[in-house]
Amino acid sequence: MLILNLYRVKLLGISFFILLSACVVNNSQNPPTPEEIDDFLIKAYKREFNLNITHPAFVYPSQNKRYTSTAYYENELYRIYVNDEGKTSSQISTPFLPKGDITVLTIFVNYANLNLEDIKDTLWPEAQASINRDHEEWADQLGLEAPIVKFENINLLIDEGRITEPSTSNLRAVASENKYSSNDYDIIAFIDLNQNEPSGGFAVRKNNWVKMGWFYNIDEDKVLTAEKLRGIAYGVYHHEIGHLFGWDHEWSDAKEGDLFITHPKLFGWEDINNNGIIEIFDDSPYGIR
Ligand SMILES: [Zn+2]
Question: Crossing angle, helix 226-233 and helix 123-142, to 10 degrees?
Answer without folding.
Answer: 60
